[in-house]
TrEMBL record:
Residues 19-97 form the Adaptor protein ClpS core domain. This is ATP-dependent Clp protease adapter protein ClpS. One of its GO terms (biological process) is proteolysis. It comes from the Bacteria. Keywords: Hydrolase, Protease.
Length: 102
């Protein structure tokens, strides 16, 4: 190790390499059977959307087949998908929720 000239021994610098976490979109898929109100409720309950935005997202999915509920790190996205799928199954709706890497 280098000295400072004062007789003190100083540890070599170590560079910290930080990496930003990968992000994942959580998507809802359209189907012919899940009630619109149920999808709005899912967006309010699990994605903290207000009634207006939740309705916009639901209608986007209804018309385009797929839509974004939010963007999260892997573990949060996975948890959202599981929560929505469990909730839809409990209510016997075929609603599908998936995640994809951004
Ligand atoms: N297409 C459904 C209906 O007409 C509504 C719906 C919207 C279902 C969004 C799923 O992710 C969905 N009742």
């Amino acid at each position: 190790d280098k000295g400072t000239g004062s007789g003190t021994i100083v540890a070599p610098k170590t560079k910290t390499v930080t990496k930003r976490p990968s992000l994942y979109r959580v998507l809802l898929l359209n189907d012919d059977y899940t009630p619109m109100e149920f999808v709005v409720h899912v967006l309010e309950r699990f994605f903290q959307k207000g009634r207006e935005e939740a309705t916009q997202i639901m209608l986007h999915v209804h018309h385009h087949g797929v839509g974004e509920c939010g963007v999260f790190t892997y573990e949060i996205a996975e948890t959202k998908v599981t929560q929505v799928m469990d909730f839809a199954r409990k209510h016997q709706h075929p609603l599908q929720c998936v995640m994809e890497k951004k």
